[in-house]
Design a protein that fits this description.
246 residues, mainly alpha, 7 helices, 0% strand, disordered C terminus, transport
């Protein structure tokens, strides 16, 4: 590519990265507002989440179009093509995270419209929300800084979120068994916890893409320890049963 073309490519790629980070900031705000609405019953926050979801969808379409134009106009090098592929995959996870945040807001509205439901403490859900919010923020930070080590931390954090989801599910089932009046609210809370757990999954997926983008290593299904090794540029640990015979 000529110097002029290189500069144009860098500018186009920078615009994609910038808009993706902007989209991620909107999704972060959606998660925070949905959980604030859960705690306060403020339905204006629910409406904000629903409006922001439209913004997220618009960004998804626009970034997709930008990526298509870049690939059509330029002949990116292997590493730049890897970046384009990674962002394209991350885009789907980010949009789906926005969808899950909207699901949380919808469940919150339903809970407060049925205010006669038996009260259940929200502490576990709020803690889960903080955890997945941190995961998403770190995944975006890792993307912005091209930091595979931070991305690997996000992958490890997903294990803790999975534990929180299972614990919340057990506790909510216990509430329903002990007091049938809690069933309706507990079901809504299970719905919210599941949506939060899925946001954690999407953040993990995005973090794995950051490692692929920076290191060229596909860490999906390799396990947390190997993800961390590959993020550091080390060779993965090969399980005994898959090692070749001497």
């Amino acid at each position: 590519m000529t110097e002029h073309t290189n500069k144009q490519f860098d500018a186009d790629l920078g615009a994609v990265r910038s808009q993706f980070l902007q989209m991620g900031g909107i999704v972060e705000a959606m998660i925070q507002e949905a959980i604030e609405a859960l705690a306060s019953g403020d339905m204006t926050l629910v409406e904000k989440v629903r409006e922001r979801e439209k913004e997220v969808n618009r960004h998804e379409v626009e970034i997709d179009e930008r990526i298509g134009l870049i690939l059509a106009r330029h002949q990116p090098t292997a590493i730049d093509l890897r970046t384009m592929l990674a962002v394209s995959k991350m885009l789907t996870d980010m949009e789906r995270s926005g969808d899950e945040a909207e699901k949380v807001a919808t469940a919150v509205r339903r809970m407060y419209e049925n205010s006669h439901q038996q009260h259940i403490p929200l502490i576990e859900l709020r803690h889960m929300a903080v955890s997945v919010g941190n995961m998403l923020h770190q995944a975006l930070d890792a993307f912005a800084r091209l930091d595979p080590i931070l991305a690997a931390q996000v992958v490890r954090s997903d294990k803790e979120v999975d534990k929180e989801w299972k614990a919340a599910l057990r506790n909510l089932i216990t509430y329903m068994m002990e007091d049938p009046r809690t069933i309706s609210r507990a079901i809504d809370m299970i719905f919210i916890a599941r949506a939060l757990e899925r946001i954690g999954d999407h953040a993990k997926n995005m973090a794995e893409r950051v490692i692929y983008m920076v290191k060229g290593a596909d860490v999906r299904h390799t396990g947390v320890k190997n993800t961390e090794r590959l993020a550091r540029g080390e060779a993965p640990i090969v399980p005994e049963e898959t090692k070749p015979e001497a």
